[in-house]
Design brief:
Oligomer: homotetramer
Helix content of chain A: 10-25%
Distance between the termini of chain A: 14 Å
Strand content of chain A: 15-25%
Order of helices and strands of chain A: EEEHEEEHEHHEHEHEHEHEHEHEHEHE
Shape of chain A: globular
Structural class of chain A: alpha/beta
Number of strands of chain A: 16
């Protein structure tokens, strides 16, 4: 079968690889109908992680079941399903508490959390390919309703970014009527904005320096805050009588750049400490890594940031972080899409056949204008 | 009346000051029967804060009501009461949500939170004195039951350290059956340990380098972990199959010292990131300050710490901080004392008349062996 | 001043009564600008309660502050404020936990909860009058923003029915994406529907037998379910694959009638047990009374209903009840109105001067078509 | 193999039945080392349910794994495990939210929840036998630590009554410092008392009319309240200044008898409405059934009770019900046993070989003095 394979920094090609197949009785094999390129694919693409050559990328996957193992009962051939990027067993200590992003069974020994096509998250091939093996299929497949085809650009967002944006708002403790400041109008930040709107936020401030992304934020119902001149903190404080918003979301991560284009890893977190009110919560779903040897900043190499902890403490703030436990949200988010209350596909800018994935990576990596979100169509 | 007055770094004397009196119809005046010296008094005593000369210290106060303003209805002359160190109005946006440690009415303009006898927390005289004015007495006084005298060394701990230790465990999300690692066996750490025991923790690890404090921790039902050789992280991991405890409490603060006696402000927080398991929560009630110009460390001057954020994020951890909202807990903790389920006085090492307060400050500041907690008796 | 006075079953007149005035230093006096007639006023109007002759009705009040007591600091002359129907002290054991609907200070001795112009809820005159005395004004007044005049038909709903409808959904544990069944499309049921929509419900089923009310429900974004032929349970089950909705709200109360016009007090609760899925919650804000001597049903006389407890238990259901703690919600709901995310005035059918109140009571009591909600204008 | 088989009302014998065996790749087979008789076995034993002749009873099971299906990975031959009485798949909509007592996969079509050896809860043979087939073994087996043998009388209680008693306190929203009233000092009520103690209740009132059970309650740290003269409500109110306890637990169920020996199904629930304070919660784990054709009471036949709903509503109370989701608690309760903080075996009165089960049923059914809890030993 065909699959997108990593061959080194900024070098990916569509190759022929061995077919995906049932390996354990709890597996299913899926024929991919849609699979997205994600911002965190770029971390690997750029060569900034320990990902190995030969890896097949792709953790935002949706498709049709073509085969199931003999232990599988809830999913059958022909079902349309979308898969959490987290691979989870369903029965370990973390899964049973709902922390499926920190599965102890599927993760490499000594760590917590597994994913498709990802550095350090287990030996699972990604879905930017024609077929995909899905472990623990009964637990990991979310079956889609009759409108699976019609709304497939919405449903595919259930694999990662919609639940991840939603997770940001849950970690931030957003309540109806709250104001929220969201750092970053990339796909995840935009999904956080949509999540906040659905949950009844009164005002949603979205910070970014790219015009096209801010325009999307506004379309979603948020108030765009342009950070290209470095005044975003002041703008938020002006909007909120100097007190700050009720809560905040970090949707950028460790490669954050300031308005002069320099990487400043603590920029977003410290700006959130400044722009969220005392007693407020911050939810951080932008990726931060335990070590980043290729970073310029000395602290960043060790995975540390110069965090404004004194102010954070004095304001009595709280902070939640980490990868979304997709299964905690995907069923209800599916229902919101099905009943017409959510339309995450609003951010899709490109739909391309798998063959054009290498070119799409190039544009997406350059943050070219208008390349907000790419859906690949392996079956096309 | 007599009161303990601050005259500069490490210089406090018992002076005669103007009597406390009713200033507003919602006030009460209390005759102090017990008032403690707190570790955070030492921050001011050592001259490390912006506290002004002439300040009367004392925020852990208990006494008998001697007069009430005409608007006061729930408290009357003769009542024995204990006062939260937080001064709160009860009706601002924060108080009405239970965040009485972040009152917007009583705090200095533009900030959140007020306290007795404290730098930057409003113009309220402290209680290391014969009498104390209590604003919003109906809201701030907790009336004590018949055994107020008999158990007054227990009840006085409701003013601060028992609720503060309890707050650490709540911020840490402790559930029955959990293991918890507590950094620091000072009064607050010991109260956190007692709180964890009452809430049904399965194992409570308390880290400190002082033998007498670790002995108290053990008496309370905790497992003492000696950090004097710098191996505390390894010890906790050994106890927990390498995974870490379910949750953690920081009860030390910004003046933390390593095993060589050097101040290392990020030591405790980063050790907790190491020793708490993925998905775990950390509650930080040790004081961290927004700026500390007298610190040696360059980051610390700005109130920043080099926080191991990459690991924290990868483990999907969460963190809560700040001063305890005493009123959120003091009523139920009072009941636990009254019905014989809590005995926070176990940590009291000294009971002294107010006159001996200057000497007590000296010993407590030197962390002299055996000076765990001092109760002053202004009425003695 | 003028006020609406109760003189016996279905007999109310606008009389001259003594002026409202400051009685305690914590009081304010308000000039009413809007005050609604509520469905629970009708319980008294119909003579079915123990309310005494001479009572001034009116617990949904909004106005302008004309005088404050000397202890009042957060509210000042000229402020536009809306008042929770609950009168609460802010400092008793229940208020400090947020249960302001169960205040122990303001309630008659031995009970919990106080209100304006209500049977058995304390000696507080109602606001269907020119002026109103507000106890504990700092705690009870919610100050309104600049658009107080422009949106006053929205803001007045913060006094009771919008928070009460919201409370129904919170007691029901509604989460975004949930389906919810709401029994009753009176003002409270419609506000519950609006609350559910704001909170991101995927489907909102509203049951009633009156066409005009169902039309309003649809306008709010709900699915109307006509119960006039007694098939409402079947309709809900058909909509939900036979499983029932995720949660349910009771917004009718003890005077519920079946499709033949007979009073059947257990009808709504048992229908909700039937139409909510296993593990689901029911929030009941329709009023049920501890005794109802004038009821026909023998159980109802004692305040009992024949509750389908076996099915409720087998399905592992949960149930929350009681009057809304308005202050738990009114601040954020105010923000939602202010920022254009909520428009509770959609249900207002009539705005009338106080003089026409007796006539309005007559129509409202007869459930005349189109008399959904009446706003009285005492200042007009 | 040998197993206890039901042959009609009060007629059980130990028969030879076909061996338990692996039927699906996700199964395990367990050799029973301990299996308890439960109060709800008596509902079937007495012939009051629809249970069929030939049923093997036993849902409180513990044993050693002797064989696993090929899909099973977390459990292996030789492991000592204890099994929740609920049988759950781990991946249905209810299981993934933690409601394993309401599994949709394992339950009979159209219902929610499965169990071993139980009427109407699926075709699963019980464990009062030599061997037991365990479906979805990875999800349902809780592996025990090294002291599995030594503390097996404690660990076997994790199958049902300890988590069920714990569930009562969680449904009741018990917080540390609370007072709680528990109706019933049978095994579940006693476990609720132990749970309340572990969670830091300040006072635990346990109501029963049997002296031996009340003595056990006292040993566990509760205050015994004798209901044999019908004054239990008054006693509780006297203990609580007339207000009632903070929360309540129902641990009796539909066969409740009054002090004259008459079955009064609404007795316990209405007494709890009386003895729990306004705003309090009640957790009901005593079994109530949707219909009970053999009951004397007309409402009871239909599964209804005459519930004091008016008072319940006026007090703003809340209520949670249903079977415990054992997996929500058993892991942490296991840890509490392992680390010496819980000793549920305190209630064991008899340990008997399987052969003596018929005789044990007889005594237990007669509520003979001293027959508190029977552990059967099939391997003995």
């Amino acid at each position: 079968m065909k699959a997108l394979v990593y061959h080194g920094p900024r070098k990916v090609t569509v190759d022929t690889v061995p077919d995906a197949k049932i390996e354990r009785p709890t597996d299913a094999v899926i024929k991919l109908t849609a699979t997205n390129i994600c911002g965190s694919d770029l971390h690997m693409y750029e060569g900034r992680t320990s990902v190995e050559k030969g890896t097949v990328f792709g953790h935002e996957n949706m498709g049709e079941v073509v085969e199931v193992g003999e232990a599988v009962t809830a999913v059958k051939k022909g079902d349309h399903v979308v898969l959490p990027f987290n691979i989870a067993c369903g029965f370990c200590e973390n899964c049973e508490r709902g922390f499926t992003g920190f599965c102890l069974t599927c993760a490499p020994k000594g760590s917590a959390g597994a994913a498709y096509g990802y550095a350090d998250m287990g030996p699972y091939r990604g879905g930017q390919a024609e077929y995909l093996r899905v472990p623990y299929a009964d637990f990991n497949c979310l079956v889609l309703p009759d409108d699976a085809d019609e709304k497939d650009r919405d449903y595919v967002m259930l694999s990662d970014i919609f639940p991840t944006g939603w997770h940001a708002t849950r970690l931030a403790g957003l309540s109806p009527g709250d104001s929220v400041v969201i750092y970053g109008a990339g796909p995840v930040g935009l999904m956080a904005a949509m999540s906040a709107r659905i949950q009844g936020a009164s005002r949603i401030f979205v910070i970014d320096h790219k015009e096209d992304r801010l325009a999307l934020a506004e379309k979603i119902g948020a108030i765009p805050v342009d950070s290209s001149d470095g005044t975003e903190v002041k703008q938020i404080l002006d909007h909120t009588h100097g007190l700050g918003a009720d809560c905040g979301c970090e949707c950028v991560g460790y490669q954050c750049h300031n308005s002069h284009g320099k990487e400043v890893p603590n920029l977003t977190m410290n700006a959130l400490v400044e722009t969220v009110k005392p007693t407020g919560l911050i939810g951080c779903v932008g990726v931060f890594v335990p070590k980043d040897p290729k970073a310029e900043d000395a602290l960043a190499k060790k995975g540390e940031i110069a965090f404004d902890f004194g102010k954070f403490w004095s304001k009595g703030m709280r902070l939640g972080t980490g990868q979304a436990n997709v299964k905690a949200y995907n069923r209800k988010l599916r229902d919101l899409i099905h009943w017409g209350r959510a339309n995450p596909s609003i951010i899709v800018s490109h739909e391309l056949p798998l063959d054009q994935a290498p070119d799409a990576y190039k544009h997406f990596d350059l943050r070219d204008d208008g390349w907000t979100k790419v859906v690949l169509r392996p079956a096309a």
